[in-house]
């Protein structure tokens, strides 16, 4: 019998909002959003999950949320606000996933209700995963509390947890119904975390937007000094470029190309090798430096352009290189990382390099000798820089 | 700062193939399919998971598959073919989900590789779920082995397992990359299972396609007598109508309307109350009878039309009614079921009734008195029928 062909498209829409003091009683942004979704449904609930790091740094948050929903009561707040650890632990130990699923079950959160997560990328990834598998997908709202999650991970479409000791082994492609970036949440970040997420802005600027790169050059010092206006613009612009990329390319990554992973192939390996003691953004900054210098040494961009990139990375206060990124013979971990990445991609390597500042190109081969030179050059430059700094 | 709007569509395509002896060495359908997907990727693997009920009834299947991939070796068969229990157990106990995830991990099945499940709806639901959460979605292939899974569940977009004692509490909307309906697999079904899935054909015919309903009237006896040609057409047509419905409406069920759940609201409650001893299709047949008679008693269709539906259900050998579907006072389980369903829908009830044979209508209120009458009428007719049968 003749075969049957199925073909359909599914539409996804969501907004990313920027605000200050999201749950201040006179800020109607959040309640307006909830009200306009599914007006026909009479029983809508909302369950909050908060990153412990955020709850500890913003001690009034829980009661602020309760007051807010006393005022705007068209959506029923689940009074049991759940606080879970932040960081990778929450993605490593499934007891936290189970806690969120249990709360969804106990409080009768269904597909007309909401799960809202306030936290860093790790908490958002895990809670998003829980929400998207419960009842085949409950509406989830992300309220990112780190620079990385406000400018990159929180505005995208991926959720997940670690399993079998593998990062993001379990996960879904499933966008939130909305993202609320509250600038006040960032006040409590350490300098390291404040800085770290900015690496994603350098990344996306280098492959997509020269003008934004030039803005980063001009504002690197302000950003390093925790200038609020500069940070707000950086987040807004970086989020915008990420959103545009997702919608223009292959949102659920059915192909193999992942240009937004510029600088990431070595970063992933380095994070893993250092047991995640190096922050994601710190590793990405080094990965960007490596792939930028490689782009120069392989004849794609000028040495002057590569130096501009290095200068921005250093002005922000990032390290340029790490001993584990050096190539010392065929068994170097970084070359192993390259091989693992090739296998991961199904046999053919795809890596983004630069052909200009603001323009990426996909390549399918990496020359080990050039990589070795690039890593050495960066190590020397880093040593020089730290000498200069000490003097 | 101005909010950012995200909006994109994702395209989904897959085919449903009909064949006989899928893994006979001269049947190239399966290997042709695998070859044309991602030709650029050099390392593609395939992991098979088989329903124990199928493996026991088709003892040569495992070695047939191994021979097949000896012949068509462009895709690497994982030699460790996994056999898991069939039926609801496999969705209830997460050890089976973990076994599939572990195999995906151990054998390095990535997003370029395939997981293929051969089995009834329960095995397909669970393996589909495992595949769609591993690495945020591995390509999964469904090879349904029951009538229900060939004509309905296996061709759709839902995957899931039971959790917290709740049916399909965890799951995803994520279509397979292909479905292969092999008629030979159905030989080993009991008469009860052979019949059960046909209820879904009555359902979809009644809400969408008068002509198909007339075909079912004309072929009910042949189907009950396990006529192969009739069964093949029934499956093909029913699968076609399900596929068309999914693509024309709301594939991932973002709204509340679920016309394909005609006859299902009471069926779900009955399955649950009988601890799933009544097959899904058997419960659906009774649910269809109930909602059809309700459609008549509420003035939507004629008594003669309702009798035609009842006649088809009985000719196929289904029971018409069950004591637990009777309305005896406000605490009757079926009225409770209605309330639970209303809550599940977020406060507003939506139930499909018939306005003609082949045409459904959504209603938002059910009258308990009319429901009581409908249930009684069916119970009497069932008693009469069984008397007639006995005499
Ligand atoms: N989904 C995606 O597309 C995507 C993309 C990139 C990264 N990620 C994931 O994001 C995670 C990293 O996220 P991250 O960099 O936001 O860090 P994080 O979530 O790991 O949090 C780091 C620490 O900061 C604390 N914290 C969070 N917000 C705070 C605040 N406002 N004040 C004080 N402390 C705070 C947390 O409690 C935690 O201890 C990783 O798991 C990574 O895999 C996901
Ligand atoms: N995903 C969906 O859209 C969807 C829709 C409807 C139903 N379902 C699910 O499907 C499941 C029911 O599926 P089902 O009716 O196919 O039954 P099943 O999967 O529960 O299997 C019933 C029994 O038949 C055995 N079996 C399967 N194929 C056989 C064969 N060819 N020969 C001999 N024995 C065989 C199994 O081992 C099992 O013991 C339920 O879990 C239900 O929730 C899913
Ligand atoms: Zn990153
Ligand atoms: Zn059904």
TrEMBL record, chains A, B:
The record's listing under Gene3D superfamilies reads: 3.40.50.1970, Dehydroquinate synthase-like - alpha domain (1.20.1090.10)
A Pfam family hit: DHQS_C
**CC cofactor:** Co(2+); NAD(+)
Q: Which residues form the 3-dehydroquinate synthase C-terminal domain?
A: 197-326
Asked if Thylakoid is a keyword of the record, the answer is no
- Report keywords, A-Z: Amino-acid biosynthesis, Aromatic amino acid biosynthesis, Cobalt, Lyase, Metal-binding, NAD
Q: Where is the signal peptide?
A: none
Ranges where the 3-dehydroquinate synthase N-terminal domain occurs: 82-195
Output the InterPro entries linked to this UniProt entry: Dehydroquinate_synthase (IPR050071), DHQ_synth_fam (IPR030963), DHQS/DOIS_N (IPR030960), DHQS_C (IPR056179)
Instruction: Give the EC number(s) under which this enzyme is classified.
Output: 4.2.3.4
Q: EC class of this enzyme?
A: lyase
Gene Ontology biological process terms in this record:
amino acid biosynthetic process; aromatic amino acid family biosynthetic process
Asked if Nucleotide-binding is a keyword of the record, the answer is: no
A GO molecular function annotation here is: metal ion binding
The entry's protein name is 3-dehydroquinate synthase
Name the source organism: Pedobacter kyungheensis
């Amino acid at each position: 019998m003749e075969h049957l062909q199925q073909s359909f498209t599914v539409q996804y829409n969501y907004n990313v909002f920027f605000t200050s003091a999201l749950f201040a009683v006179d800020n109607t942004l959040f309640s307006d959003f909830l009200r306009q979704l599914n007006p026909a449904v009479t029983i809508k609930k909302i369950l909050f999950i908060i990153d412990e790091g955020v709850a500890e740094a913003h001690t009034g948050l829980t009661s602020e949320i309760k007051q807010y929903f006393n005022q705007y009561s068209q959506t029923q707040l689940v009074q049991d606000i759940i606080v879970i650890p932040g960081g990778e632990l929450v993605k490593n130990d499934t007891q936290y996933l189970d806690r969120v699923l249990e709360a969804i079950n106990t409080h009768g959160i269904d597909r007309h209700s909401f799960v809202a997560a306030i936290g860093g990328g790790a908490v958002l990834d895990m809670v998003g995963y829980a929400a998207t598998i419960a009842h085949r997908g409950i509406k989830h709202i992300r309220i990112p509390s780190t620079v990385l999650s406000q400018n990159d991970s929180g505005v995208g479409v991926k959720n997940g947890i670690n399993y079998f000791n593998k990062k993001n082994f379990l996960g879904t492609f499933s966008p939130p119904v909305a993202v609320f970036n509250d600038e006040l949440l960032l006040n409590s970040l350490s300098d390291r975390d404040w800085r770290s997420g900015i690496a994603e802005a350098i990344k996306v600027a280098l492959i997509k937007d020269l003008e934004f790169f030039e803005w980063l050059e001009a504002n690197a010092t302000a950003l390093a000094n925790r200038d609020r206006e500069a940070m707000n613009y950086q987040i807004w612009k970086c989020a915008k470029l990420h959103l545009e990329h997702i919608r223009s390319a292959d949102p659920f990554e059915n192909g193999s190309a992942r240009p937004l992973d510029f600088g990431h192939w070595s970063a992933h390996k380095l994070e893993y090798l250092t047991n995640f003691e190096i922050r994601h953004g710190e590793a990405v900054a080094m990965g960007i430096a490596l792939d930028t210098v490689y782009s120069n040494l392989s004849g794609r961009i000028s040495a002057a352009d590569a130096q501009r990139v290095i200068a921005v990375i250093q002005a922000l206060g990032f390290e340029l290189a790490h001993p584990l990124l050096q190539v010392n013979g065929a068994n170097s971990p970084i070359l192993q990382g390259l091989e693992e990445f090739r296998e991961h991609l199904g046999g053919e390597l795809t890596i983004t390099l630069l052909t200009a500042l603001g323009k990426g190109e996909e390549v399918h081969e990496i020359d080990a000798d050039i990589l070795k030179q690039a890593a050495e050059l960066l190590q020397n430059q880093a040593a020089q820089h730290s000498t200069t700094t000490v003097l």
